[in-house]
Each structure stands twice: as structure tokens, then as C-alpha cells.
Amino acid sequence: MRKLKFLVRLGVVWAALLAAFALFSVYQEIKENKLFNYTDTYASSEVKVKPEYEPNTTLKYTFNAVSHDSYLGSISFNYFRLKGNPGQVIFRIKEARQNKWYAENRYDFSYFNNDDDYQFGFPTIADSKNKEFVIEFEIVTPNLTQKQNILDLRAVPILTAKYVFPRDTPYKSPGKLMTILVNRSASVIAGMDYVKVGTISFVIALLSTLAIYRKDSGIKSEIVTRQKDLQNYVHKINPFFVPAGVLIILSLAFISGNFLLAQRMAVYLWITLFGSVIFYILQVTVLNRLARMGKLFNKISVNMLSTLDDLMTKRALLLLGILFVFVSGLSTTYYLGGDDTRIFYLYPQEFLNNYASKIVSDTGLSQLTNSIPPSSLSAFLIILVGLKKILPIFNLQALLYSANIMGGFFAFYYLIGYLLRPQGKHERVICIIASFMYVFSIFNFYTLFNSRLMAEYLISLFPLSLHLGIKAVREGKFYFLVAAVLIWSAFNFISVTFPLSAAALITSLPLLVFATWKHKVRLAAYLALAGLLFVILNLHWFAYVPYTNFAQALPGSYTPSITSVEFRKQNEAGIRAVTEINNSFFPLLNSYHQKIQLANHWPQLPIYFSWYSKILISGYLLIAVIIIAGLVIEKDKTRTSLYVAAMFSFTLAIYFFTVNIGPWGISIFLWLSNHIPGFVIFRNMYDKFAYGLAFQWALVISVSLAIVVKSIKSEKHKAYLLFAVFLISVLNAKPFILGEFENLPYWTSLHSYDGIRAFNRDYQDMLKFVKNQNSAGRYLSLPLLSGNSVIVPDEFRKDHYYAGVSPLLLLAGKNDMSGLISFADKAKDVFHWLENMDYGAIGRLLRQYNVRYVIVSNSTPEDLQNTFMFSDGLFALQPPKFIASLIGNKIKDFGSRYSLYEINPKYRSEKIYISDSPATFANHGAKLSFKKNAAHSYDIEISDLTGQHSLIFLDPHLKKWQLITQSGKQLAFNIHHVVFDYANMWEIDPRVIKSDFPVSDYQIMPDGSLRLKLKLYFQPYDYFATVNTISAGAYLLGIIFVLKSLLRPRHQ
Predict the structure, then answer these.
(1) Are 473 and 661 contacting, i.e. CB atoms less than 8 angstroms apart?
(2) What 3-state DSSP class applies to 157?
(3) Is the pLDDT of residue 70 over 90?
(4) Residue 80's closest CA among 874, 878, 877, 872?
(5) pLDDT of 902 higher than 90
(6) How many alpha carbons lie under 13 Å from residue 507 in its C-beta half-sphere?
(7) Where residue 643 falls among pLDDT bands split at 50, 70, 90?
């Protein structure tokens, strides 16, 4: 019977939560879009459009559309690239077959934001329903050069109408009001994610039921119930005394003949009568029950905290967490794309074989060079390959994503528990709240969780490694530090994730100093040993850093080395532009910078304004707790040092996240960028230091709460404070928990989304075909995007795409050039040639880059053609005649989506060839053939060599490329030069060969020409096996050492 009663209560609470959520969602919809305002969209089939051009100055679009309802109030279009240019927009509207315009307005271009829409308002047209209107959108400018980029005629919807009903609609047409309300409610409820909303509301209902009907809270309530006194007090207030007093004044005014005053007082008489009735109702229904409501609130707050404390001691919670991880791993959706493709979750073995095992040639995805050796990813990929074999049915990305969330909570919980040493239920609950706040911080949503890059593992592994490191130094257990070093090495915290992990480490330095200060000698010894271990573990890629753009400005790279003075100067203007709009107000209230979101039209902006800006005021309580802790710190002297360290770390994080603090803030940051090599990696400080700020916020709030709670004597007030902070944490987590971030379209698109289940079948077939092609040449993917990216539609879901770095090298072993960034320092030239339709110049550049094949995507989604992926009208600059100028014979079609061509014969080149002179392709004598053995080794044979020639190798220039004869002798260094601003060239002179090399290295033919065989070899490959063996051995020994130390029996 007890169980049945509990289930009934649980069902009632669950139903109430679902109903409340539905009502709140309807309220939000009405609040955002106004009850009597609604928008209506038009497809291209419903609108007639006629563009008219006047050379160089005027562009006019005339739309004909039928209004779907009454009270037409505004029209909006999708338009592009108006701001920043001189000119005006003229908007007109009239009823069809009428001569006079109903409204005509002029707008300067400065009114508009690029890549956005704008509502053109006019006096509401009451009888607009079913009437046809003519709408003109006219652009007048002296710089009308790109006509096709002004207005998007392919947008869906092509235009949007807004209807604005008057406020008296309920009186004139009650049925219309009910129709609007029902339609709004039905659309909101139909659009809910029932599985997610139901699951989350069930968990909250379960916790609430446990808290409300908990038998023994463990805390005696201190609320003194004086219901009788309260009733006597409120009953002494008779609200009708107020209208009585107004009536007296009205009577005196009437008697004295002051009818104007009497009329005014009559209004106040009505207001006070109405108010008195409302107050009386509240008096009977609410005020007389305040004591009972106070009891309920006290019970909920105290019991909720007790329930949280109890749950953390149950093994069932850990089992539920593991179950949650594995259930999440059954998801069929992968979030791929972006800067690192994230394809390693789906194809880890291919990623390892085709990329992470490379040390030279094709070390940049869809580009010539890279800043970090690909082999830096190998340890992480080996982990993924192992997991893929052990758990073949699971989605590794979803599995590890969920494990990261759970691991982040527990890792921070145990770290803060180790630092705080909680002494009672309240302090244990503080650790729970801080851990929840840490994982579900807005700063993590906007950066790590939003991008899903490898840096997301900082959420769980950074607090874990910090805990291990501090514990190692304090307790003299070096194996804990070895475990931390293994984590940092395997999960790329010192390679691709380094900017974020370093930022978190910088802001945590005060904490680390506090935690290890008493063991300075041990700390120094441990750091020296850990540094040595770092080098050995990562030797397999450290050895090849000198051959990347990180260490030197390689020819043909997109930017100079990030450690160079030139690079730092280039970034100074960018740093100023970003920091000058930042302000410490928002991060001090536990919120993201607002102006930077507005300036860049971030896709998260709707969520920010509809939710986070509404709860911004709750940040005042959090910062107040931190300050109050400083005021009462004398009452908890055991935590003084920890509080000071946490505050130091917190203020550092606020500064680096904001920079624009006081007159010196920006200057200090620029000084650091200009004088500390490599500090420029933090130039996007709002991104790099966001995770560090999330960590420091949770740390300082946990320490501050512990101090404040200890200073509070009342158990009731302790419970209230902790419950309020817990509620704030839950409110901040709401958009993430309900999956609102996952439903955002790509930036600047309308209805194109991330998340695919599989590449479409045509693309997969194309990959298989390209993989089996025997060619050392590169591929060109068209149309070109702004980045080195491609767009691949999902096989199963419409409007879902892979949009990120081209995966051709990863999945087919062949590299391509897919966007402007692929052309490195020639990117601006390529864009300029496209603008001027100089397609021959592009073809000649492709010849220098050894492009042999062209992949044409025949169906670029219209919604993405005018987004940031094709910035500055790039898609429109690539008409069919551009593609036709570059392609040769068609090799194969792959469905209707993709076609593979040879390059136009006049732009064809070989990876290695011999020419009469440098920087040319002309050859009138010598012949050359080659065979590619591996990325680091080629066999070359030259015949008919009679005079000096140039041997060209179309791969990024590296001094360690060697030409070696059959006898093992190397051609001199001084004949190895840069050609085409990026590639390798050697001067081959038969006279030098005859004089400097043994006869066995060449053959003199009857006509006097030479015939010789050479080997093109990348010399650093000599120690490839050695450094890999050392690193692999160090990983193995480190793991064995940690496991053996953990399993060693402990002496009592």
C-alpha cells in the first residue's frame, strides 16, 4: 500500500511538472511573439518576383504576394552585405492595381546588419486579407558591383509577413482570440521533445517526491508557526477603508462644485474598489496560509538537500550513471565536421592509418602544411580503435560525451572534497552543487560542448588530473602524477587542446601553489621527473615539430609561425577589436559576454536572450556569496588560504576572459602577447579562457559557500541559501539539459543543421572509387568554400549535413583542396581572380599544386550558399563556366550528387618532374619517371640528361628532403631551393654528377646523355621507428607502474 501511495504521489507531481512546463512554454511563445502578433511565411511558389537593374547604381525587386490574413503590419526579406557601403534602401507597398503607394520609406545602409533580415514596418492594413499587394525593394548605391549578393531570392521562406491585430480583438472577435490561443498552444506542445522533456521531468518529480514526503529529514525545522497571530494581523487590515476615504474626497469635491476633481476621483474610486476586492481575495486565500506555505518551503529545501546528500552515498547512483552512458551510446546520430572533423569517432582506424601515422607529405587536412605533427593524435586514436573493437555496436562519440559529463561531475566532486574536507551534510551538499554548476556552466556550453572538439574532455580530465597531481605532491605518491601525465599526453592536452588546457592551468596556478606550498622540494623533484616523462611519452611527435609551421614559417603556409614577431604584430589589431567590446559585468554574474554575441550574430543568441538574460539577476546572489565569504572569513580560519587562492584564480580567470578591465587591461595582455613566445594562441580569449572561468567559478563558489554556511547559525537559513544556489545551477543548466543547443542551425543559415547518421551513399561510393585510384596527385573539390571544408548531406535526414574540413585524406588516403584556406598564402589571390573571372590564373596555380582531379558537388544546399561557409558571395563567384574552365574528361558520376573529372589537360602536372629551368614546366630533352613507395620515399629515374635541368618536387619545401644516388651519396644542400613559393627544386647538372659521384651512380648512353637513378627521401624518417618505440614503451611502463602501485597492499 505504501508503494502504491508513493507511485500515485509521484504520478501527480510528474503530471504537474509536465503541465507547468507546457504552460511556461506557451507563455514564452506568447511573450516573445506577442499574443496578437504572428508571422506568416511565403514560399517562392506563392510570390512573383521581378528584378530590374540600372547599370552600376540601382537594383529593384518587385514582389507580388497575396496577404493571408487581416492587419498586415510588416514585411521582411533575407538580404546580404549592405552595411559598410554607401547607399539607401527604398521600401514601398501598395495594393495591386492601385496607383498610389500605401507606404514608402527610405533607409540608409547603416540601418542593417550583414547576413541578417530586417522588418520593414508600415501602418497596419486592417482589410488586407486575401488582397494582392505589390512590394518594391529598391537599392540605390554608387557601388553596385555584386548584384546577386543583395537579396536572397532562393531563401526559404522568400519573405515573411507579420500581422498585428489591435488590442480590442477579444471584444470584437472573441472567436479570433481563442483561435490564436489554441493554435499557439498546439504548435508549442506539438514541437516538444517528449522523450527528453518526459525523462527530465520524471527525474525532477522523483527527487521532489522524495523530498516532500521524506519521513526523516535529519534536521529539525526552526520555523516558529504563529498562524493565529498572523491571521489577527492581516484581519486588522480592512482594504475597504481606502475607497471609503476616496469617496469622502469625491463627495467634498462634488458639493464644492469642483466637477473636474470629482471626475478624476471617480477613476480612483473604481481603482481602489477593484484593488480592495483583489486584496481581500488574497487575504483569504494566501496571506492566511503563509505559515503553512513557509513550512512547505522549509520541508522542500531541507529534504531536497538531504536527498542529494543521501544519493551521493548510494552505489545505485553510480550504476545509474553507467547505465546512462551506455544508453546514450546507442544513439545513431554523429555530430561531425568542424576543425578536427570528429570523424575519428566513426572511423578511428582510417584516421590513424591515413593521417596520424604521417610525418611528411599530406600532414595538413585539405591544405599544404600543419602546425602540429599528425602523430600527436596517435595515442588518442589507439584508445578509440580499442574501444571500437570492444564496443562495436555503440556510438563512440555519444558514449564518450555522456561519460565526459558524468566523469566531470564526479571528478570535480572528489577534487573539491579533497580540498575542502567537508565536515557534515551541508558541506557535502556544497560539493554536489558546485560539481553540478561546474559541468553545466554556460561557459562550457558556449565552447566545449557546443564544438564537441577533443578539448571537451577537459570537463572530466582536468579536475581529475589536478586532483591526482595535488594528491601526489601532498602524499608523496608519485604514481598519481604519472597517471596525470599519461592523461595529459594521451588526450592531447599539450598538442591540439593546448590553448584551452594551458589557459585553465594558468588560471589555476594560485590554487596549485596553495595546495603544494608545504612540499616545495618534493614538488620541484616531481615536476622535473614529470617533465622528463612528458618528453619521453610524446617523443613520437616532438621529434617532428621542427618540420611544422609551429616551429618555422614554412613556404606556402597560411600564416607565419605563431612564435614569430610578424605573427604577433598581425594579431594586435584583432586583439584590440575583440577586447574593446568586452566588459567584466557579465562574467561577474556568471554569464557570457553579451556584446560579442551581438556583434557576431552568434547562433546561441536566441537562447541567450530568451533564457540566460532573464535569469541574469540570479548572478547577484552568487557574487554576493563570494564577497560575504570574504567578510566572515575570520570565522573559518582553516579555509582562509584556500579562499584566497580560489579568489586569486577566479579574478585571474575574469581578467583573461575579459581583458578590457581598466586602462591597463588591454595593454598588459598585448605586452604578454608581444613578449612571451606563443602567448598569441590566447588571442581569442573569450573562447580560450571560457573553460578556465567555468572551473574557477565552481571552485570559488564552493569555498565561499562553505565559509558562509559555517558562519550561519540557523539550520533553516543554511538550507535556504544552499537550495537557492542549487536552483540557480539548475536554471542555468536548463537549455543544455533540454537539448536547445542541439537544435540550433548552422551560423547564418535558416534551417540547416549539424548531426548526421551516415554520409550519403553517393559520397561513400565516391570515396571508395578515389581510394582505389593510383595517383600521387591532389584533388580539387568544387565549389570552393571559404574554409578548407566540404558540405556532405546526410543519407537519412533532410537539412542535416557534415560541414567541416574535407575528410578525403582521412577516408580515402588522397588529399584535396576544398576551399580558399587550402591555398594558404594564395587565398586572397584566388578570391581576387574569381571576382575578375581570371580562371586561367587559378588553373595555373592548380598546376603548381599538382591538382590532377576535380570533384564537383552538383547540389550545394541553397540555404548554405549564402552563409559564412561561402562568405563574401563566394558561391555566386563560381558559376558553371568557372567549373567548365578547370575540368577535363569526366571519369565517373556518383548518383546525381557528385562527378569526378580529370583536370583540364593544360593545367596537368606531375608530382615529380624535370624541366629546362626553375618555375617552368617546359622540358625539351631529359625524361623522368618515378614511383611512390611511401609518403617519405620515392624512386626516381632520369634519362636523356644532357644539360643542366631542374628537378621539381611539388610538395612543401623542407630542407630534410634528400636526393640520394645508388651509392648512398647525397646531392649537395646548396642546390636545393624553393620553387613556386612553396615547393622543392634541385639543380641537376650532368657535369657535376660526372665529377663528384662514382661511375656506378650513373650510366653514359651512346648519345652522350646520362641515365641515373635517385632516391628522394625524408631523412627524419630514420628515427621514426625509434621514437615510436620509446613512446610506446613509456606508455606501457607508465600504465604498469600506476596499476602496480594502486594494487600494492597498503600497510596499516
Answers:
(1) no
(2) coil
(3) no
(4) 872
(5) yes
(6) 31
(7) very high
Q: Which of these, 756, 822, 735, 776, lies nearest to 931 by C-alpha position?
A: 776
State the span(s) of the chain assigned CATH 2.60.40: 41-164
Q: Which residues contact 783 (CB under 8 A, 6 or more apart)?
A: 857, 860, 870, 874, 875, 878, 883
> CA 4 to CA 12: how far, in whole Å?
12
In the numeric block, which cell numbers belong to residue 506? 594558468
What is the pLDDT, as a whole number, of residue 313? 62
pLDDT in tens, 319-357: 777 888 888 888 899 999 888 889 999 999 999 999 999
Instruction: Judge contact between 575 and 683, C-beta under 8 A.
Output: yes
CA distance from start to end of the chain: 49
Predicted local confidence at residue 697, as pLDDT: 97
DSSP-derived 3-state class of residue 163: strand
Residue bearing the bigger pLDDT, 68 or 765 = 765
* pLDDT tens column, 409-418: 999 999 999 9
Mean pLDDT, range 639-657, rounded to an integer: 94
Strand partners, 970: 964
Q: What is the mean pLDDT of residues 114-129?
A: 78
Architecture of domain 41-164: Sandwich (2.60)
Question: Span 462-473, mean pLDDT?
Answer: 97
Cell representation of residue 557: 603556409
CA 750-751-754 angle, to 5 degrees, is: 115
Write down the mean pLDDT value for the chain: 84
DSSP string, 529-556: HHHHHHHHHTHHHHTTGGGSTTTS--TT
* Grid cell listed for 148: 546577386
Other CB atoms within 10 Å distance of the CB of residue 176? 15
Q: Residue 160 has what DSSP assignment?
A: E
Q: What is the pLDDT of residue 221?
A: 44
DSSP for residue 961: E
Average pLDDT for residues 245-272, to the nearest whole number? 75
Joined together, the cell numbers standing for residue 355 give 593521417
To 10 degrees, the CA torsion angle through 359, 364, 365, 366? -130
* E strand spans, 126-242: 132-140, 159-164
More confident position, 559 or 544: 544
DSSP category for residue 589: T
C-alpha distance from residue 652 to each of 15, 464, 516, 629, 738 (Å): 46, 21, 19, 18, 32
Element (H, E) at 1002: strand 1002-1004
973: Cβ contacts below 8 Å, ≥ 6 apart: 959
Reported as type and span, the H/E element at residue 77 is strand 72-79
Q: 549-570: per-residue pLDDT in tens?
A: 766 666 555 555 455 555 556 6
Q: pLDDT per residue over 789-815, tens digit each?
A: 999 999 998 889 999 999 999 999 999
What one-character DSSP code corresponds to residue 326?
H
- Which of 144-148, 502-506, 988-992, 996-1000 is predicted most confidently? 502-506
Report DSSP letters for 726-766, one per residue: HHHHHHHHHHHHTTTGGGPPSTT-SS-B--BSSB-HHHHHH
Other C-beta atoms within 10 Å of 810: how many?
23
Q: What span, in angstroms and rounded, lies between the C-alpha atoms of 835 and 198?
A: 53
> DSSP of 923-969, one letter per residue?
-SS-EEEEEEEETTEEEEEEEEE-S-EEEEE-S---TTEEEEETTSP
Q: Cis peptide before 157, with omega less than 30 degrees from 0?
A: yes
CA distances from 1010 to 357, 939, 941, 1017 (A): 37, 17, 11, 22
Length of the chain: 1052
- Beta carbons within 10 angstroms of residue 339's beta carbon: 15
Residues of the chain with CATH 3.40.50: 761-907
Residue type, 284: V
CATH class, domain 761-907, is: alpha beta
For 488, residues 6+ apart whose C-beta sits below 8 A from its C-beta are 461, 465, 494, 501, 534
| Type of residue at 742 | E
